[in-house]
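Researcher: Next sequence.
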Amino acid sequence: MIDNKVNQKKLVVNKLTSAGINITPETLNIIMSLENPLEILNLIIKETSFIPSFNSYLTLNILQKISNEEIQKTLKRFVSKEIIIENLNSTSEKPEKAEWIVNVEKFSIEPEKKDMINSSNIEGINNFKEKSNLALLGHVSASLPKPSKEKKKSKIYDSAKSTLHFKPLAKEFDFSYEILKDPTGKLFTSGDYDDFYDLTLDKYNKLRNLMRKRPEMKAATNISNIFRLSRNFEISTLGLVNDIYQSKNGNYIITLEDITGTINVLMRNVSENVDYIKTIERTVKDQLLYVDGVYNPGEQGKTGIIFANTISKIDIPTDYKPNISEEPVSAALISDLHIGSKEFEEKLFTKFLNFINGKINKKNYREIASKVKYIIINGDLVDGIGVYPNQQEDLTISDIFKQYNFAAELLSNIPEYIKIFYVAGNHEPVRNAIPRPAVPKKYSQELLNLGVKCLGNPSLIRTHNVNTLIYHGESMHDMNMIIHGLDNNNPVETMKELLICRHLAPVYGEKTQIAPVDNDWLVIDKIPDIFHTGHIHINGIGRYRNVSLINSGCFQAQTDFMRSFGISPTPGITPIIELDTLNVLPLDFKKINS
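Model: Next structure:
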């Protein structure tokens, strides 16, 4: 019976240690006197997080605010015996240090060494507490075995010592995630003509189905049916853009095609059509358009044409309501670390690791860090090998396996209560064409051992009820080159256009390599609550029709290759998004002292 109580006391103290809670000896004795101390301890830890006066010091006054009846009855019993009357009258919310079991971490016991602490050890500690007015377990903790570090820490991170108080709120919640979409293991192609045709057909059908969800689109007819008309007639149709150009008169001519035929559409460039002209100016080939207008069959021997009244894209509904989490947890969104590159900003990333572990010397940063439950790495974790000409001159680690070893060493500093998702980018050792599978196990095994979830590009995940579309962003360069007004310095505007297209790479045949698979994984068929991209190396945060848009920037300084493309990166800016509010907190680690 005594051994059982001693073991329970060990478990209680260890659980308090894990939660970062300090406790007075009197309060610990009260908890141990309960019938089911471990069960009720879970309730105490949960309820104290909602008590404003609780600052990780579990006092008798705090215990009085817990709703559990058994706790309150026990408190009354202690009071009636005059054991704690004086403490209740005089103890403040944060007593003097001498009244505390200071830093309960000193009492933590490594699982594999529990047999080294027998009941006589614990009884000796209890006797010491009863005989000493100090009641400091720290005085006797030197005789206890020192816990070893299970994870290998990076040298830079080891140097960041801190005694700052940090209680991670996210640790109190279980993981809640689901992989809704991941192309890994589902990408099959022979490269034949039929594969290209099947991809285009699947793209058209998916986009058409999305467009026809709008009530006004249900009357749209096939192009072949339009050509049967022998007189002017009001019609509506939809199709993929085959060509687009401006006539000598300044009007716009668009060629649309569906599976039944091809037809020309004319939109007059006049003042009453200014909004439609703006839409056309941001239209690219291969995206779906809806057209409403008057069909003119033309004179005998000539092809008919549609004189458009309206033109529209699929877009996001204006009344879209995003999902939010019921728990106060957050996600940190990062990308483009390029580990192995000479320009990898290791010091900035070490600051990020210090932040995640609550070692930044500012209370508000520790509060933000305490809620981080998920980290999403959106591609280019490593710099890779042979990705661009003369890359070897920019590398400090020229072996891909060693790049991943170092990546795993750094990521091992992230606490186990945080789940990491890692999507393959264009620098990873996988095929360059999108959709792209996850990084193979032969490279990522050490990451998998850490519990990292490796995914393909693009992927859609649900974390605590919030849907995040993760896409590295390869096609953004094409969009920025084709559409006037878009550029790398404002990635949010480009992301907005991809959402309007409801496709991650709407243009086929430009620099973005698209694999000819029979299922178009790049269609945005499910509206995300968060749209997360990288690749551009420039941080961007915005919102479009209640969808949060985040480009997570990078942890790499400017390379000569970037300079040749005019890219000025913004390293070290990390967006933290609260899943219960969808508020985004951008942290600039260049301005934060660890």
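Model: Confidence is low (pLDDT under 50) at residues 80-153, 155-162. The chain has three domains: 2-148, 170-183+327-588, 212-312.
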